[in-house]
Amino acid sequence: IGKGANEMTKKILILSGSPRKQGNSDLLCDEFMRGALEAGHEVEKIRVQEKKVAYCTACYACRDAGNCAIKDDMADIMQKMIDCDVMVLASPVYFYSIDAQLKAVIDRSVCRWTEVKNKEMYYIMTAADGEKESMDTTLVCFRGYADCVEGAIEKGIIYGTGVYHAGEIKKTKCMQKLLKEGEFTEKEKKRTGIKE
After folding, report:
1. d(CA 31, CA 173)
2. Residue 169 binned pLDDT confidence (cut-offs 50, 70, 90)
3. What region does 95 belong to: left with phi over 0, alpha with psi -120 to 50, or beta?
4. Which of 22, 130, 133, 179 would you label with 71, given CA atoms 20 to 30 Å apart?
5. Whole-angstrom Cα distance, residue 34 to residue 53?
């Protein structure tokens, strides 16, 4: 995310669903964050694996109380989801979907989902498969959530293909072509697999 001369600083929230610290999708999150910080934005990355976020139990206490009945780290994450200007959702591909860690956060956001509005959305996905098409249904999961966010605008997709072992992404064009400003030119988008 670059920042032009007339653009305001944006508050960016990165939700890294990677269960592995320094896993491939987590490393792409770090690189995204580095570029956004260098461009002058305010950035926070949350490694969901390191937070206590229980699964939604469908008790619907939130319908009456306006808040989730489960007392864990989700209340803090939820407020950050509401307050950010840009939301980055990142996950490795698990059976052509997002992983359980990130899905729990998305599901638990039901307690205040109508307060999450007007977000620029970026998606980061990594997979052992070398074809971007293997991420299509994972992307549908991200877009499904964004469809529930009033005023959400999809700004970019980062595909990290052909990576399995932690850190393999470092050797790929995807990582090497992330620009210093956190922006992608049309040429880099084509080379790295990012598209808008």
Report:
1. 13
2. confident
3. left
4. 22
5. 26
Q: How many CB atoms lie within 10 A of CB 21?
A: 12
pLDDT tens digits, residue range 139-164?
A: 999 999 999 999 999 999 988 888 88
Angle, CA of 81, 84 and 88, to the nearest 5°? 75
Residue 61 near residue 68, CB atoms below 8 Å: yes
What confidence tens digit (pLDDT) does each residue in 32-53 have?
Answer: 998 889 889 999 999 999 999 9
161 touches 193 (CB < 8 A): yes
Asked if residue 77 lies in contact with residue 89, where contact means CB atoms within 8 angstroms, the answer is no
Share of the chain above pLDDT 70, in %: 86
Phi first, then psi: what are they for 70, rounded to 5°? Answer: -80, 125
Alpha-carbon distance 20 to 25, whole Å? 9
Which amino acid, residue 33?
M
Are 129 and 96 in contact, with CB atoms under 8 Å apart? no
The model's pTM: 0.86
**Cβ-based neighbours of 191, under 8 Å, separated by 6 or more:** 173, 177
